[in-house]
Amino acid sequence: MHGLCRRCLVNLQDNSLHVKVFARWNGKMSQIRIKAGRRAYEIIKDGGFNYDSISTYFGPAVGPRWLISSGFDLTLIREEILGRSQTVQLVGSSSGAWRFAAWLQPAAADCYRKFLDAYVNVRYTRADTPATVLEKFKDLINFYLEDDALPFALANKKYRLTVLTARSRHLVALEIKWLQKTGLIGCFLLNFFGRNNIYRFAERVVFYHGSKPPAFCFQPQFRGSFVRINEINFKYAVMASGAIPLVVAGVKDIYGAPRGVYRDGGLIDYHLCHQFAAKENDIVLFFHHQERIIPGWLDKKIKRRTPDAGMLSNVLMVFPAQSFIEKLPDEKVPDRDDFLTYIDDQDTRIKKWCKAVDLSAPLGEEFLELVASGKIKDVVERL
Which of 31, 82, 253, 271 is most buried by its number of CB atoms within 10 A? Predict the structure, then answer.
């Protein structure tokens, strides 16, 4: 694997680095915005927010957009902000699951950087097929998740990993491209008339780490099944969660789970569509790349489709301000289209992605400063 750009590695590796944030809340432009659901907003405004109240950290299915969360993640890992007084659920779909799998490993920050390095530098070609892309996924996951470290990860008491996947059905389960595409078109059309119609084409399967499934799996509105993570299925669950339909071949017959073809968890759980808080005063931390929250992958074009307000009540969402976006290469967050845009010039893509990672380094520091100073209650907005 090629290394990340030198400046990027310096910013991410130096634990003693004091990040100079160009945008502050004391009258200058900030690099982040913070929104909170009803209960989280009340807690913050009353001055009752602290890191120990965070019970869940959610990672959405956002493809390469997750790169701008890397600085935020590494700050939390380095400062050991989460899991000090209670076990924190790390709930991820697709790239969110890939990020959080690193959190459980020995030397979590180093493992996370290995993942970051591998993800940025992976190269796809015009000759790639869904099957060959899946093989590259396997190589990437094996690069940063070592088999010898999995027992340690599963013994982690500070964090509990939850991986969201979709077990595909009918035509969506097939690898013949035009048939799978036909199934997805049918799924999209029926989903337009009601989100519950998606379950005709895919079943939510939650892979959980720990002695029992997370609390959201027992809520009345939950639909799906859950499977305990073990050393055998750990990597396969993580890999399946990122297996984008039509782009990546599905992962078949994961050990311990119902037989079938498993695909990207974002098909059902794209951004945030569960109430993850088990208690009234629990906080669900959510770093997002944008202000809009979209429940499922097929809801992107349906502007009216938003999560239920009750599901967002305990959410504390951090996302980049426009001033940060404007500093990114091409003034945009890295996305999956970049793979095609730079398919014949991958060095340029890698360079731009490195720059985005570099620029993300101060975001976590700014969040910590807002909490430490108490200014978070002055800047938080209602979600």
Answer: 271
